[in-house]
Amino acid sequence: MIYLEQFTYLLASALFIIGLKYLGSAKTARRGNQYAMMAMAIAIVITLVVSGIAGPVQIIVGMVVGGLIGGVVAKKIEMTSMPQMVALFNGFGGIASTLVAYSEYLEPTTVPVSLDVNITLILSLFIGTVTLTGSLIAFAKLQGLMPGRPIVLPMHQILNFILMIGVVIFGVLYVMTPDVPMWPLLIIAAAALFGITFVIPIGGADMPVVIALLNSYSGLAASATGFVLSNNVLIIAGALVGASGLILTQLMCEAMNRSLFNVLFGAVGTDDSTGDAGTGSGEQKTVTRYTAEDAAMIMDTVQSVIIVPGYGLAVAQAQHVLHEMAEMLTARGIDVKYAIHPVAGRMPGHMNVLLAEANVPYDVLYEMDDINDEFQNTDVALIIGANDVVNPAARTKKDSPLYGMPILNVDYARTVMFVKRSMGAGFAGEANPLFFDDKTMMVFGDAKAVVTGLVKSLKEDE
Amino acid sequence: MESLIVSIYVFTLAVFIGFELITKVPPLLHTPLMSGSNAISGITVVGALLAANANNWKVSTILGVLAIGFAMINVIGGFMVTDRMLGMFKKDKKTEKGA
Fold first, then answer.
1. Contact A240 B32 (CB under 8 A)
2. How far apart are CA A190 and CA A176, in angstroms?
3. How many CA atoms lie within 13 Å of A81's alpha carbon, on the beta-carbon side?
4. Of the candidates B53, B69, B74, which has its C-beta nearest A51's C-beta?
5. What ipTM did this prediction achieve?
6. What's the predicted TM-score (pTM) here?
7. Which of A216, A275, A455, B4 can pair with A424 through a Cys bridge, CB separation 3.0 to 4.6 Å?
């Protein structure tokens, strides 16, 4: 029986790996997800078969209730709210690991409990709990339940340090005297506080990095539980997720030209006070204001347009009407492409999903590196609800918080059109010199209203 | 101690495979990748099943049941939302229509 169990877990692990491989291409991604589903189903079934179902009631209750909640959330969730959902689900992964580890502490599978089980148990409790409370804070920030700006406590780093030391001390005490029930509870308490103090100083704009990192932690938590139970499928699946989250974290940091250290401990960002920096200097220089009709007239004469969507587009729910406009332009023989900056949206790849939901085909969505050379041969760069990711100050202004961040080269296009609500600066609080350029057309207003106006004017021409 | 060594081997190799596979995922698919890997981290449900599977209602059993619930939210919610998202990704059909 042990062989059957182990080989089935091996099969499940292999299916997880194949599933992730297929997730790497748009054509096969859906199949990849199905492979991973199959792997999960196989792992669950063999676990039940081999261990014998001693308590059918609680197992059915747990699976049905959890499954129903998950299913309803997955069906109802708005695509703009994906970051919150992923954040919350990361937390659920964390708490599941903590609960399993603590349950194993109460009723060990093998007695006497060996030293390495005790050590991995501490790890599992710690990572699981940090993932839980950290994710809850990230969720609260993204959902607007708490302010997005960084919250820094007095002696914040020292507090973090003390909590870490606390975990180590309680861990050592636990290993020496595992029978004292206080130690694992103290480890959980310290880890819970650490998860909170770890995420509250991180600003709203840096949340994509944090979600990716917590995604990694939720995988590591599963792995740690696998270490406790000596279960390879948990270790492998958890390690895959851990690696995935870590890579995404790294990519997000690169896209903002920040180190992970700076994101975690820099307390950068002023989520609530955006707009101040831009308006002050903006009054002195002249900005040319245009209307949607003016923009439509320009569109009559061009051959190529690159659209740069930012999160403002999603906030205004203008994706669908934008797609309608793009279709009209394409029908007139104009070459329309979308340029997607890696940090457009609120989580890795978020903008692609939002546009896909509006039926924008994915082969007109271009990554930054693939499209940056094309702006110089493009008639119009149309920027909607984005700012920092196209701010040329990132290239030249050494004292800018944006300096060094890779940007989309919209300033190389013949005409630059901004659709923005106000002159406000982006998250970074850095004014955009491109607003004052002669070739720039500023169209102020809600993204949806402006693009709808554009579509209307284009229709009238026909 | 021997089983710990084996576990560390398995973990390390799996991390390498993970890095190899994920580096190749294009940014287009990063959100589905995250929600999908969310579902995969719900593999903890296996441990939860073992913890909950007893014909008594000790604290450890109850914690196990709770863990099953949370892990299953991850599993079902994660896989379903990933499938929903991936279903929205379409290639351009106009080229076919126009031809």
1. no
2. 19
3. 14
4. B53
5. 0.93
6. 0.91
7. A275
The answer to whether B65 contacts A114, with C-beta atoms less than 8 Å apart, is no
Residue B98 included in any domain: no
Tell which of A27, A51, A69, A89 to mutate to test the B interface (max B CBs under 10 Å).
Answer: A89
Contact B78 A365 (CB under 8 A): no
Instruction: Work out the burial of residue A114: count CB atoms within 10 Å of its CB; fewer than 13 is exposed, 13-18 middle, 19 or more buried.
Output: middle
Low-confidence ranges of chain A (pLDDT < 50): 271-283
Nearest to B74 by CA among A348, A371, A248, A218: A218
Residue type, B28: L
Chains A & B: contacts with CB separation below 8 Å: 388
Q: How far apart are CA A270 and CA A392, in angstroms?
A: 20
What does DSSP say about strands A365-367 and A289-290: parallel, antiparallel, or unpaired? unpaired
Q: Rounded CA gap, A53 and B55, in Å?
A: 9
The side-by-side arrangement of strands in the sheet containing A335-340 is A289-290, A440-444, A415-420, A380-384, A304-309, A335-340, A365-367
Closest CB to B42 among A20, A93, A349: A93
- State the DSSP code for A390: G
In whole numbers, what is the pLDDT of chain A averaged over residues?
Answer: 90
Does residue B9 sit at the A interface (CB-CB below 8 Å)?
Answer: no
DSSP characters for A306-362? EEEE-HHHHHTT-HHHHHHHHHHHHHTT-EEEEEE-TTSSSSTTHHHHHHHHTT--G
- As a whole number, mean pLDDT of residues B26-38 equals 95
Structural domain contains residue B94: no
Q: Domain limits at B75?
A: 2-88
Sign of the CA dihedral A414, A451, A342, A31?
negative
- Ramachandran region of residue B33, left (φ > 0), alpha (ψ -120 to 50) or beta? alpha
| CA–CA separation, A398 and A392 (whole Å) | 11
Q: How many domains does chain B have?
A: 1
- At A3, list the tokens: 């062989």
Q: What does the alpha-carbon distance between residue B16 and residue A461 come to, in Å, rounded to a whole number?
A: 57
